[in-house]
Amino acid sequence: MEENVVHQEHKNTPGYGYNILIWLTLISLTCVSVAVAGLDLGAYILLTALVIATIKSTLVINIFMHIKFDDPIFKLFFSLIIFTLFVLFVLTAFDILYR
Amino acid sequence: MSNSVSTTIKSFYEYEGKHKGILGWILSTDHKRIGLLYLWSMVGFFLVGVFLGFLMRLEMLSMGPTIMGPQMYNAAFTLHGIIMIFLFIVPGIPAAFGNFLLPIMIGAEDVQFPRLNLLSWWLYVTGGLFAIVSLFLSGGPIDTGWTFYVPYSIRTSTQVILPLIAAFILGFSSILTGINFITTVHRMRAKGMTFFKLPLFVWALYATGWIQIIGTPVIGITILLVIVERVFSVGLFDPALGGDPILFQHLFWIYSHPAVYIMILPAMGVVSEIIPTFARKHIFGYKAIAFSSLAIAFIGTLVWGHHMFTSGMSDTARWVYSFLTYIVALPSAIKVFNWVATMYKGSIRMSAPFAFVMAFIVLFSIGGLTGLILGSVATNVHVHDTYFVVAHFHFVMFGGTGFIFFAALHYWFPKMFGKMYNEKIAMTAVGILTVGFLMLYFTMFILGYEGMPRRYYDYLPQFQFLHIFATVGSWVLISGLLLMFWNLLYALKKGSPAKANPWNGMTLEWMTSSPPPFENFNYHPEIKFGPYEYEHYDEAVKDEYK
Amino acid sequence: MNTNSHNIAHHRDDFGSKMGMWLFLFTELILFGGLFIMYMVYRVEYSEQFHLAAKELNLALGTINTLILLTSSLTMVLSIVAIGRGSKKISILYLIATILLALGFMVIKGFEWGAKFSHGIYPGGAELANLSNGEVIFFGMYFVMTGLHALHVLIGVVILSFMLVFLLRDKINKDNYIKLEAGGLYWHLVDLIWIYLFPLFYLLH
Question: Hey, what domains does chain B have and what are their CATH numbers?
Answer without folding.
Answer: 4-545 (1.20.210.10)
